[in-house]
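A favour between colleagues. Tell me how you read the following sequence-structure pair.

===
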Amino acid sequence: MASPTRGASPGKPLLDIQGVSKSFGGIAAVNHMTFSVEAGESVGLVGPNGAGKTTLFNCVCGQLRAEEGRVELAGTPIERLPVYQRARLGIGRTYQRVEVFPDMNVREHLLVAERARRGDGRLWRDLCNRSRPEPEELERVDAVLDLIGIGDRADTPVSALGLGSCRLVELARALVSDPVILLADEPSSGLDVQETHELANVLRTLQRERGMAVLLVEHDLSMVGKVVDRAIVMDLGSLIGQGTFDEVMSDPRVRDAYLGTSA
């Protein structure tokens, strides 16, 4: 299957989510969600705890199979594809919990992701200590590390890094696959104010300089306001508002969902 280009198919959004629903034990975690993300756009997916945001992410990325609805990437239906095929088509993902290998250094994390992206079998030879990184692989990995601003930590064991640096490692690992869209799930969780500010700058840089679309789930609304072009609000599995960040934050339904009052 051919990989989509940086832009969506003519007349189609880059990521198109139509009527996606997912239930657990008869409770609708995601209820007929419909929205789209254009090529190169940064969109915030926000809402109170339990709104269904991460469940929707999992349906888009393939960790969960939706019961209803359609998901297309650059005009290609992907809702029946396994996780690895969706990733190779251009979906990058970071998670709420930092998922790193403490025994590896920073560069090795990205090399593993690069081998997985290539899908040429060299990852299995790595496990048997029969393969060494090629110059083009090292060049690609080091370029991503420099882009994220952690090139000086390439040889540092991840176990020696703080949470903020580990989140940047996870972000860099997602970017090695050169995604057309990054789904970032609460990337500032556990970070201090300065680390959150730096992360917001990185996400904006990725969008503006690489043309990468971003779909951001984030509870830090001040960060969302700095990063996104548009915001979509979920509550109890359903879409309750969308527009610019200022527009949705002034919507009485959104204030009621967050604060329990529309005042």
The radius of gyration is 19 Å.
